[in-house]
Design goal:
The protein is of the alpha/beta class and about 240 residues long. It has one domain: NAD(P)-binding Rossmann-like Domain (Rossmann fold), CATH 3.40.50.720. It contains 8 helices and 7 strands, in the order βαβαβαβαβααβαβα. Helix 3 packs parallel to helix 4 and helix 4 packs parallel to helix 5. The protein is globular and about 50 Å long. The relative contact order is 0.14. GO terms for molecular function: oxidoreductase activity.
């Protein structure tokens, strides 16, 4: 398991839910953290708590449906952190549930792809080349196991596009020291998952950490966080290593 002490992690959508749990866990492992949210005040309290662990904490803000805002938040992150070693593209939007499946709107698709795909790719394109130069980096792009729900197809298709994006990079990343993988946190009781979801957000750990901590040189893997619920980090890594 690689040491995270002194490394910098960027977590998008860090203010609550999976993002807040991830940021806290990374800080507890010694990683400095860049917390992203729509507004700086959304992560103020979390930043104060994480700073008490002894790591450095930076907050950046930006609306991921606005590509200029994406560029600006990346500029701010790099200016303050210097380099990003680990990226969790956690932020996403869920489009409305359309009872009439034939009335999913074009705007649903546009908004979903802008946030869930285009901004995710833009973040990867900006931060991965320096990782390749340093020959170490971890990129974890959150996806979903959603299927057979055409009422939410704008969201589910955007996540399928993320899966394709990650898997197409597998040969390019082989032997580089940089790994990019997929993480499904599970159906969680968050703003995105809704109150009827079966799992508490805390159950995303330790599984959500696995793709950042594995050091096997493999990209393009799909990790389901719920497969590791209740395990220690060491046990989760052992289980993941068995593939």
């Amino acid at each position: 398991m690689p040491s995270l002490h002194g490394k910098w992690s960027l977590v998008t959508g860090a203010s609550r839910g999976v993002g807040a749990h991830l940021s806290t866990a990374l800080a507890q492992l010694g990683s400095n953290v860049v917390l992203h949210s729509r507004r700086l005040d959304h992560t103020r309290d979390l930043a104060a708590r994480l700073a008490q662990t002894g790591v450095k904490v930076v907050t950046v803000a930006g609306e991921l449906s606005d590509q200029r805002a994406v560029d600006d938040l990346l500029d701010a992150a790099l200016e303050q952190a210097g380099a990003i070693d680990i990226v969790y593209n956690n932020a996403a939007i869920m489009t409305p549930y359309r009872e009439n499946t034939w009335e999913v709107t074009a705007e649903d698709f546009r908004t979903s792809f802008e946030v869930n795909v285009i901004s995710l790719a833009r973040i990867c394109y900006r931060l991965m080349p320096p990782m390749l130069s340093r020959r170490w980096g971890r990129v974890v792009n959150l996806t979903s196991g959603i299927k057979e729900q055409p009422e939410l197809c704008a969201y589910s298709i955007s996540k399928a596009a993320v899966d394709k994006f990650v898997r197409d990079f597998v040969p390019k990343l082989a032997g580089t020291g940089v790994q990019m993988n997929l993480l499904d946190p599970g159906w969680l009781r968050t703003d995105l998952g809704g109150p009827r979801a079966p799992n508490d957000p805390a159950t995303c750990l330790p599984g959500a950490l696995v793709p950042a901590l594995l050091d096997d040189g493999i990209s393009g893997r799909f990790f389901c966080a719920q497969d590791y619920a209740g395990l220690t980090i060491e046990a989760a890594l052992t289980k993941a290593g068995r593939r």
